[in-house]
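*** Backbone structure tokens ***
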Amino acid sequence: MGKNKPRGKKRVQAPTVDAVALAASLPQVETLRDIPSFSDMRIDDAQRAAFDAFIEQLAQADAPAASEMQLGCVVRLDRGFPLVATENSTFRAEHSVNFAKARGEGERLLPAVGDAVAVRVAPGHDMGVIERVLPRRTAFERWRGKNRGERQVLAANVDIIFIVQPLGASRDTCELVRDRIARSLVLAYDCGAKPVVVFTKADRCTPDELEETCQDARRLVGEDVRVIVTSSAQAMGLDEVRACIPAGTCGMILGESGAGKSTLLNALLGYEALATGEVRERDDAGRHTTVARVMVSLPAPCGVIADAPGLRSLPLVGHERGLARAFPEIVAAAHACRFNDCTHTHEPGCAVREAVDEGEIDAIRLEAFLALASEMRVSAQSLDPDIKL
């Protein structure tokens, strides 16, 4: 018979040698400007309560880590290595071994930029170890696993999603890319954040093109979503963007490579803080210039903005909640359709199409709703039956 393992104090994990070496190769904290401080980030009551409960759990287990634990926020990710801001300092951290042992739902709780975390700093160590990700108010996720059920959290605890769309993509027109904006809208609402559409590169368009594009966008996103036109080259619309993100709030910029995201952030900061890349002439696409997940603190009285790598695709799988929030008038009208399985395309007694004919629902919004709903139905059918959304 095997011997029973003696009960004693839990072994304290220290940063590994490999982790320390890799962290040393990353940008040093003292060279980074505009990193949000702990006071710039909002920790809510639920997160503080979860942190206190975790400390109490460690104390009851007589774990020495209880006295070494600090409440922090992940403000940057370089090669997966978090940069954590606490009340007293900002430092690099690695994940606890408990994350590596996690399976299923736990895999989605790896620290993301914007996360509130319980981080331990052992005496004599410069690096911390993140032991627990605290409850998230919001989590902006995108599907990346095809039929494997994997989601990627781009940012946590964000309040505003800036949907960035460049203008004049073909150099001679301001044609609105409705599909990209519509699916971004669904993802933002599903996350629980407030969406704001921000057009960039307005200097490439004529006043008439700008007006036509903005009208089209407002028809698509609805009256509750703000539409802002900007030009970093002309310092146009920047104050409107700043007004959307007051102190104590956290925003995230969502857009493709070449959309002008980093250029916009640089303009908001007032200097070249983030790298920008040139755009290919043939298709107006840009290379990935944002290689890290970063958060920057805007000058007072503004809050914090997260920048993420440009996303070429935004697949929608399991975002029915976001679809309903993005198009509430269509969902409400559908309850009055004659058939429960009405597709709102050809059936008699369709209350949704009747509302369109009467001007109560914009045809542009219905077109976008039907396209995204169809995509989500097809995606759901292709998933493994064991995947739970």
Observations:
- The CA atoms of residues 45 and 347 lie 49 Å apart.
